Amino acid sequence: MSALPLALRQVAYENRAFWRNPAAAFFTFFFPLMFMVIFNVLFGAGRSGGVPIPEFYTPAVIVFAVITATYTNIAMMVTVSRDNGILKRMRGTPLPPWAYLSGRIIHAVLVAALLVVIVAAFGAIFYDVRVPWDRLPALVLTLAVGAASFCAMGLAIAGVIPNADSAPAIVQFSILPLNFISNVFIDMRGAPAWINTLSEIFPVRHFADALLGVYDPSRGGGAFAWGDLAVLAGWGFAGLFVALRYFSWEPHH
pTM score > 0.85 for this model? Predict the structure, then answer.
């Protein structure tokens, strides 16, 4: 059997394993919707950046959902598999290493795509947030660049995490504070300049700003945030470089 069918079989396996873990599947899809409801309850009476609060938090929660499905899940699951010896044993099977990792990445992207649909539909149904169908190319490109970049960064941080016990703390410490200063959990457009300057160093801010621009009806030019996408892609290539340099199939000692 060629490598491509093996990779597709791995995607199918990852999908079955995911849905056979009801707790993991439930929280993966529950948390974005929970945050969306909480933010709209707390701040829903006002406006943010000139738009109603739901129009800010719908794309913001989509960003959170995509990052969770790609960066967070890949980093933690790959680290656990490595420490349990699964990655080492996998290299002794006919499955090519790239097919195994491709299966994990493709499954993560599929989960992210499903989350995008769910959150966008939730916002449209319950908060009357317009889905930007007229900007579909910009929407798809932004989500594709964001998902690919955070997959690469997930593999990168998995390569430097020392063991599975430390993975949750390291992964959450690397991403959770950025969600607070990057237009995801809180609108930072009115924050002090130094905080915005700091957040613009990191990829979460650029992903959030690019998607917020797609949802913003006042932005022209097809809503392609080329500058933000370039920075995001740059982080993705940097993550790929680190992953190629430091990724290990055997437990760290």
Answer: yes
Among positive and negative, which fits the CA dihedral 129, 131, 135, 141?
positive
Q: Which of 66, 39, 34 is nearest to 54 (CA)?
A: 39
Separation of alpha carbons 133 and 47, rounded Å? 23
Exposure string (b/e) for 168-192, b if CB count within 10 Å is 16 or more? eebbeebbeebbebbbbbbbbeeee
Q: Taking a C-beta distance cutoff of 8 angstroms, is the pair 18, 111 a contact?
A: yes
Which residue has tokens 């002794």?
Answer: 92
Q: What is the largest CA-CA distance in the chain?
A: 58
60-85 pLDDT, tens per residue? 999 999 999 999 999 998 998 899 88
pLDDT tens digit string along 165-191?
999 999 999 999 999 999 999 888 778
How far is the C-alpha of 222 from the C-alpha of 137, rounded, in Å? 8
